[in-house]
Amino acid sequence: MSDSLGTGEQSAPAELLEIPAGARPPLSRTATPSNTFGPGARSEILLQAKKNTVLKSHGRPPWFTRYDEDGHSVGDAFVIGIAGGSASGKTHVARRIVQALGSIPTVVILSQDSFYKRHSPEDLELAFANRYDFDHPDAIDMPLFASCLADLKAGRQSNIPIYSFTQHQRLDETKYLYGAAIIIVEGILALHDPALRKLYDLKIFVQCDSDLMLARRISRDVKERGRSVDGVLEQYLRYVKPAYDNFVQPTSRFANIIVPGSDNTVAIELIATHVRRKIEDHSRLYLRKSLARIGPRDLSPGDLKDQHFPNLTVLRQTPQLQGIFTILRDRTTTREDFIFFTDRLSTYLSEKAMEFLPYVTKEVTTPISKIYAGKQLAVNDVCGVSILRSGGPLERGLRRVIQDIRMGSLLIQSEDKTGEPLLLHLMLPCCIRQRSLAKKSFVFLLDAQIGTGAAAFMAIRVLLDHGVPQENIIFVTMIVAACGGVRVLQRAFPKVRIICGTIDPVLRESWALWDTLPSPPETADGELGTPTAKTKAEAEAEGRRVWVVEPGMGHIGT
């Protein structure tokens, strides 16, 4: 997703240009920085953002999370490969396709230029002397290119390398990408490698007249890269034209569609129509296995404690804990008391969750020179991820138990008409964003209650997409609805542990009428006038369906 998803703990900022999908993005194609941004790697990142672009509209839909009620894959991202000669208009075609698609949840335009290989000192010397062939297939790290694209297609996170055209070297920093519904890959050799071609759902070749490409290249390099006309012509004759004839043009036979480099409006509209149809097919496939079926089940509180749910842990119902829930459920409880006892409950839950982390024995010498056999955490990275906004009340208790814990967040909200969850925003710690660390990290996932389980289902899937093992996810919640989606969660993710404070028996269907009913107007004397609300039938027809846990504690965090 976008660079707004980063946290302070990440190794490097994910510098990606974020543009509303309905807006017209910039059409300039910049590969080499000018002096506008100043020297340094930061300028390189900003300029490459123009090549690697994320366009978002309304969040990641549930059908693109690629899972059904059993946690199985439903579908992958739709990948388009666009190849063509240098300055043929590939980037322009990619952006025109995005414009023609209209409101698509998340689109990534991925450039081949990011995947140039790391160069040896000998290669660097040739590059600075303009004697290195950057148009040859050997200049591209094709295995890394295919690996990153495969991860994005499968819905997993990926860290895209950053290449500096001023240093002629790949930088140590990377760009974090996750959650694209459509991926557009553009580059002169985008169709050259067989491993890449297998990942494309649609292959496009931009055919353009050689004279027009040369004229565009001279204009671009002189204006944007500060080169001389003689230098551009020398490079074109030495490397660009031979590479086009030998490697680029032959790949046109692999293309499904040949698009002209100019006057291509009709071709782009046809492509957009085809892509929209494929996206709709993804949606219909998901709806057949919709999370809307996660509703009340014939399940009693006692059933949650049997052998079918070995990973569900309920706090021991002591008189103190029962007293806390009594205060939290009481309508007469003051705001201050509610906050105080919510913090106490979250602390108890966090302490219980700590028992499921791995420990090793450690001996220490006490002040009286006695050996004490204790325990020490056997994991390097432990972090928390809160499902906004109801997960917020659990954060303070977790910070009391682990003071320096790194926190992230997920914003998952229901779509108004269907009630399906949408992933609108995520901000994850560095230990999750880097898959090598995520495989060994333990994550406390925080939410106030599990009703239908739809938000919890998506949140767990997001962590799995980043490489966090199921057994390393500990879901901490205050209340679980006995007849809700906990059974689906346990069936789909049997190794995820759920720690809860109590079990409530009822999950009642209701309507979020506050979304549609206006407040009664006040009269001149300050009293409430006649309500102007719609009828209940009209409100239910336009309102948002919700499932209410009863007795519950209300809408925590809202």
From TrEMBL:
Catalytically driven reaction(s): uridine + ATP = UMP + ADP + H(+); cytidine + ATP = CMP + ADP + H(+)
Enzyme Commission number(s): 2.7.1.48
Keyword terms, alphabetized: ATP-binding, Kinase, Nucleotide-binding, Transferase
The protein's annotated pathway: Pyrimidine metabolism; CTP biosynthesis via salvage pathway; CTP from cytidine: step 1/3; Pyrimidine metabolism; UMP biosynthesis via salvage pathway; UMP from uridine: step 1/1
Gene3D superfamilies xrefs: 3.40.50.2020, P-loop containing nucleotide triphosphate hydrolases
Superkingdom: Eukaryota
Domain annotation Phosphoribosyltransferase: ranges: 317-509
Segments of skewed composition (Polar residues): 1-10
Protein name from the UniProt record: Uridine kinase
InterPro entries: P-loop_NTPase, PRK/URK, PRTase-like, PRTase_dom, Uridine_kinase-like
Entry's Gene Ontology molecular function annotations: ATP binding; cytidine kinase activity; uridine kinase activity
Family: Belongs to the uridine kinase family.
Annotated spans, Disordered: 1-40
Domain Phosphoribulokinase/uridine kinase: 79-261
Any Pfam family matching the protein: PRK
GO BP annotations listed: CTP salvage; UMP salvage
